[in-house]
Design goal:
By secondary structure, the chain is of the alpha+beta class. Helices cover 13% and strands 32% of the residues. It has a domain at 36-108: Immunoglobulins (Immunoglobulin-like), CATH 2.60.40. The radius of gyration is 22 Å and the shape is elongated.
Length: 128
């Protein structure tokens, strides 16, 4: 059996396939890596740091007090955020890539710090 299409039908069919491919949902974002959460400092701020996919925006939300903070990640995906928190508060960590939001990771603010991983973040030079 042979099917024959005229040029107009071919263009309409091809356009429908391309449009359908553009509208198809992409794969969901993976969850962020397990963050390090410090005990609150003397000012009442916990430090949350870790690594996310590069060129995304990292967020931390404190479910106990409703506060949240965010920042663009470093070129290699590292982030370091400080958020007002008390011992036992539940923090939710996630990231956004464009209009997509990753699954969340929950961490409880500890009473004491464990060994702090060596993640160094340098300030950008405004003259560059």
């Amino acid at each position: 059996m042979v099917f024959r299409f005229d040029r107009r039908s071919f263009v309409i069919a091809l356009g429908g396939m391309l449009l359908g491919g553009c509208l198809a949902k992409s794969l969901p974002l993976p969850p962020p890596g397990q963050p390090f959460v410090s005990a609150p400092d003397e000012l009442g701020f916990a430090t949350v740091q870790g690594k996310m996919p590069d060129e995304t925006t990292a967020f931390v939300q404190n479910l106990e007090n409703g506060l949240y903070v965010g920042q663009d990640t470093e070129p290699d995906g590292r982030y370091l955020l400080k958020i007002e928190a008390s011992v036992g508060d539940v923090l939710v960590v996630y990231y956004e890539d464009g209009f997509e939001r990753s699954p969340t990771v929950r961490e409880v603010v500890p009473a004491e710090d464990e060994a702090l991983p060596s993640v160094t973040i340098t300030e950008a030079d405004p003259s560059e």
